[in-house]
Amino acid sequence: MSSIPSFPDDLAVQFEPYLPSANTNGFPSLTLTFATSLDSALSLGPGIQTQLSGSLTKAMTHHIRTFHSAILVGASTAISDDPGLNSRIQGAKHQPIPIVLDPNARWNITESSRVVQTAKERKGRAPFILVNSQNLDDGAVVERKKMLQNYGGGYIGINVDDSGRFKWETILSMLKQELGIESIMVEGGGNVINSLLEEEGNRRFVDNVIITIAPTWLGKGGVVVSPDRKPDPKGQYTQPRLKEVKWIPMEEDVVLCGKLNASSTLYNGP
Ligand SMILES: NC(=O)c1ccc[n+]([C@@H]2O[C@H](COP(=O)([O-])OP(=O)(O)OC[C@H]3O[C@@H](n4cnc5c(N)ncnc54)[C@H](O)[C@@H]3O)[C@@H](O)[C@H]2O)c1
Ligand SMILES: Nc1nc(=O)c(N)c(NC[C@H](O)[C@H](O)[C@H](O)COP(=O)(O)O)[nH]1
């Protein structure tokens, strides 16, 4: 994996207000970062890795990774992209811990997975994979866990809810308590991003948002960012709308920065 040229200082300074800061809600600071097309697609389809960022916005992503204790993706992204989940920016001073949400232990991570190779070469950290607690004793999980522990990673069991998912509240407090994680950069995919943008118990856990918008349409069938409108018990939908918005043009892309946790706009429906 080749190294990415450093991110220019005059651009880096523009992102400072959107970097993690100590959170008052007791959870790690959460940054949502992804690249999207003009039709809100992350990729051409499930399982298809699709390059959207240009070279400068790619460098921006790797620069931002160095400010986070952890980087988090869903199992389908891990399976389709075989990601490194490290920062490949020249002179990276800090590497985030990779976290993968994989309740059903679908990801067959091996010694030759890129993230493990990266950890072996000390260019990044070994991942922690979050599985449904019931799958911790599964033979394949036990083997993979042993392999990951050699490099400082592992598997962590979490109980799932009725829909087979982890609650974000549980994920975030567990990561803080067990791994000492203070900030998390969530990169995708669609399933993970949409669930974070939906309300959980009347709240959302996203603090900062940094979205790269590329000048292209991926067409129907793509993996799209479009959360379900989940009404609260009074039937109201709280529309997530960014505050303190900044648009930063970068070569052919534009990067949208904003904050989500300030009070959101109420949408009363048609
Ligand atoms: N453009 C980008 O910035 C970007 C970023 C990441 C991924 N991608 C692309 O997105 C696609 C994958 O997205 P996707 O939506 O298919 O899958 P995903 O990566 O969001 O993974 C979904 C899986 O993650 C797990 N998961 C998610 N939320 C969970 C929760 N709350 N509790 C427990 N488990 C949970 C489940 O196993 C679920 O099936 C790929 O094509 C990938 O290349 C693009
Ligand atoms: N910023 C950005 N621009 C893109 O054009 C694109 N396709 C991604 N995709 C994100 C990516 O799919 C997941 O975050 C990875 O899976 C991480 O992969 P690496 O660690 O870089 O190897 N991200």
What is the element layout, followed by pairings?
Layout: H1 9-15, E1 29-36, E2 41-43, H2 55-65, E3 70-74, H3 75-81, E4 97-101, H4 114-120, E5 128-132, H5 139-149, E6 154-158, H6 168-179, E7 183-188, H7 190-197, E8 208-213, E9 223-224, E10 237-239, E11 243-250, E12 253-259, E13 265-267
Parallel strand pairs: 1-7, 1-8, 3-4, 3-7, 4-5, 5-6
Antiparallel strand pairs: 2-9, 8-12, 10-13, 11-12
Structural key phrases:
single chain, 270 residues, alpha/beta, Dihydrofolate Reductase, subunit A, 9-stranded mixed β-sheet, two-stranded antiparallel ribbon, globular, binds nicotinamide-adenine-dinucleotide, binds ligand HJL, NADP, DHFR-like_dom_sf
Point out poorly predicted stretches: 263-270
**CATH level-four homologous superfamily name:** Dihydrofolate Reductase, subunit A
Chemical compounds bound to the protein = nicotinamide-adenine-dinucleotide, the ligand Nc1nc(=O)c(N)c(NC[C@H](O)[C@H](O)[C@H](O)COP(=O)(O)O)[nH]1
Number of helices: 7
Strand percentage? 15-25%
Order of helix and strand elements from N to C terminus? HEEHEHEHEHEHEHEEEEEE
Pathway: Cofactor biosynthesis; riboflavin biosynthesis
Organism: Arthrobotrys conoides
Domain Bacterial bifunctional deaminase-reductase C-terminal: 28-256
GO molecular function, one term: 5-amino-6-(5-phosphoribosylamino)uracil reductase activity
Question: Quick summary of this structure?
Answer:
The protein is 23% helix and 24% strand.
